[in-house]
Amino acid sequence: MESAKSTLRGVIERITYHNEENGYTVAKLAPEFAQRGAATPDREIAIIGNMLGVHVGASVELTGRWTVHPE
Q: Which of 42, 32, 21, 39 lies closest to 62, judged by CA?
C-alpha cells in the first residue's frame, strides 16, 4: 500500500546500510512524534533512499511516500 508524498522529521537512530558512492541508505529513524512521547506501535521507522552524508544522531527532514513492506 502506498500513499501520497509527505514529510517526516526525526533523528537517525541506526544505519543498516550506506553506499558512500551514491548515498543509498537503509536506516532507522526515531520520528519527531515518538520523541515527544506519543504512543506508537514502533518507535523506529525504516527509511530508504539516497542520503549523502547522513550519520547516526543527525536530525533530518525527509519527503517521500509511505509504503508498508511485508517484512
A: 32
Q: Which three three-digit cell numbers place residue 3?
A: 500513499
Distance, in Å, from the CA atom of 22 to the CA atom of 34, rounded to the nearest integer, reads 30
Q: What is the C-alpha to C-alpha distance for residues 68 and 49, in angstroms, rounded to an integer?
A: 15
Is the whole-model pTM more than 0.85? no
**Ordered DSSP codes for 26-43:** EEEEEEHHHHTT---S-S
Dihedral of the CA atoms 55, 52, 68, 37 (nearest 10)? 30
- pLDDT at residue 70, rounded to an integer: 78
